[in-house]
Amino acid sequence: MTSKPRRVAVATSSQLAADAAMAVHAAGGNAVDCALAASLLTMNTEPGVCALAGGAYVTIWGPGIEAVTIDGNVGVPGAGLPEAERRLGAEPAVMAYGGGIRTLVGAGSVGVPGSLAAVEHAWRRFGSADWRDLFAPVIRATREGFPLSPACHYYLGYSGSVIFGRSEDGYRALHDENGRVRNVRERIVVPHLADTLERIADEGAALFYTGALAERIVQHVRDGKGMLTAEDMATYRAIERPSLIATVGNWQIASNPPPAVGGSVLTAMLDAYSLTEHEEWTTAALADLVRIQHACLDYRREHLDLAEDVGESAAKLLSAARAGQLVNRHTSASTVHTSAVDDAGFGCAVTASSGYGSGEMPAGTGLWLNNCLGELELNRRGLDAGPIGARLPSNMAPTVCRPIDAASTRVMAVGSPGADRITTALAQALINHFKFGWSLDRAISHPRLHVDTSGDEDRLMVEPGLDMPNTELTQTVYDKLSMYFGGVSAAQFDGDDEDRFTVAADPRREGGTAISPGA
Q1: Residue 17: left if φ>0, alpha if ψ -120 to 50, beta else—which one?
Q2: Rounded to whole angstroms, how far apart are CA atoms 482 and 462?
Q3: Which residue, among 50, 76, 367, 338, has the nearest Cα to 200 in the 3D structure?
Q4: Is the dihedral of CA 425, 409, 70, 9 positive or negative?
Q5: pLDDT digits (tens, 9 = 90+) for 447-490
């Protein structure tokens, strides 16, 4: 348990989620409780963008403890299945979303969900509120109905039929009587979802993994020839690991360690850029940024995404970055994020994803299941994703930052959605804030670039307002800031002065922030 704070600040995906965090703080919650409550709300009120039956990572750091990241990512299913019953039940789906996405949907794309296990583990280790208090805001929102966000509406415009038409309850919740996706801000009520959350609040995560709810989820997947089994659910555990640490200026930055790849790539980018002498985004500085991004992302594609031992491959990347020897061959998945800090000096960052969604919803549950086995740009092995029980690849990188001075109570929690743009968005925001000394708002809203290595040709994607160098990469310049480049949200506490809270949400995406009032 952490010490009880007087005040908490949060930055998250919606104002509804920020308000949920404040409600939990009023019930005695600390930064961890508030982050978890906001995350539960976003997972369940951002249809298409995220869902509870997916994966999540939680990074926590505070005075007197080592930074830890709790791994609740989706696992490889199939425990106890004969070989003849594996790799079935998945169907290809193609969407124009993000310039063209090919994914796999259906029961065969569903991996072992871990988000709820991560939430419960983090709460038991670090929370101070009651378990049921974490669920009260999301139960109320899902029972009364919640507004359809612009980001959800945008994604459902591509996926509403091809993916989210697979479940009768889910389709009716998201579409009107004429089959059109409901309007932005129109109230959404997903049948049975509030009742399911109410039961989890009463009975804990065991209901989801070994109880009646687990039985219903497994039966649905197996009926669709998917690989998820009762043994997969019953044996799933969230895993707590020491966070990966980078240093920028006078701050240490803790993020997601292997077997996830996001934290390693972020740390390598930050370590490599810390060796440069730039103090602003000059043309030369941007040239170095392009070089570092390209090297790190190219290494990820060639060595991390299909690595048998991600830890060993990541160690080589970090060693090269810290030695100034990064080289490369060229000399949307959906996520939500919440950041919370408190005046006891604790920071908590939570990033969650359910892939593009499998479209599957077991009858009577209101729960959309993930399609993380079918998220082919991350899980390049597809349905042959690796050993049963192994965690799937992930770019998620929830991050908590503290000064090198261990006695300080200053702390910042930060993260971003955005698939492979998560690491590049965070690296640029953290460089802006900690290396250049910019305000949090300016650091997050400043134009970004991203080296896109996802296609046949590597490309340089650029927001307007940057004095770009000449490079050999084909450039695409956007006409305005775009949600393509992520959606960084951050909350910071700057010490004993109770007025020293700062929150910032990315102008590229709708977000919500809140700071609790003083005592």
Answers
A1: alpha
A2: 10
A3: 367
A4: negative
A5: 999 998 877 789 999 999 999 999 999 999 999 998 889 899 99
CA angle (445 as vertex; 441, 450 as ends), nearest 5: 140
Which residue stretches of 224-309 are H helix?
A: 230-235, 262-274, 283-299
User: Helix 262-274 and helix 283-299: axis angle, to 10°?
Assistant: 150
In whole angstroms, what separates CA 70 from the centre of its chain?
13
Phi-psi category of 104—alpha, beta or left, where left has phi over 0 and alpha has psi -120 to 50?
A: beta
Question: Other CB atoms closer than 10 Å to residue 154's CB: what's the count?
Answer: 15
Q: What is the pTM of this model?
A: 0.91
Distances (CA, A) of 226 to 89, 218, 369, 384: 5, 9, 12, 13
**What distance in Å separates the CA atoms of residue 519 and residue 505, rounded to the nearest whole number?**
25
Enumerate helices (H) and strands (E) in the chain, giving the number of each.
Answer: 15, 20
| pLDDT, tens only, 97-143 | 766 778 899 999 999 999 999 999 999 999 999 999 999 999 999 99
Q: Can you tell me the distance from the alpha carbon of 281 to that of 279, in angstroms, rounded to the nearest whole number? A: 7
